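Quick question, first post here. What does this chain look like in 3D?
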Amino acid sequence: MPIILEHITAKSNKPFPCVEKARRLRYNNSSMLLTILKSKIHLAKVTDNQLYYEGSIGICKDLMKACGLLAGEKVQVLNFNNSNRFETYVIEGQKGEISLRGPAAKLGKKGDKLIILAYALMDPNEAKMFKPKVIKVDDRNELR
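> Answer (accepted):
Ran it through. Tokens below.
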């Protein structure tokens, strides 16, 4: 249903201020939301696979904090070794842990290198100003 922008104030014969703001927002395409990279862990190493586990990826708490990931947040996982891509959700892991759990465990093996990405929805003005949190890790999944 379209937004009606024709309400006029009684005294000034001009639109309500909120109507003017809505016009500006629509004019600047701000009513559109873009999917923008929010967080990235670059080249994390798989430390464990747990096939018979309720699905997810376990990520070291320190890495989660460093790149702004939350428990339960949806992530996209890219496997450098076999080119698999999949989506799952984050659970807090032990120090240095990057573990594939549940069905995701079949999409990588111990030692594989992963890129873990999370996205956020933003209007174009926010997106222009936003800087994602990108971290790089070493072979022990510690911050470089």
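The first strand starts at residue 34 and ends at 45.
The chain has two domains: 1-31, 34-136.
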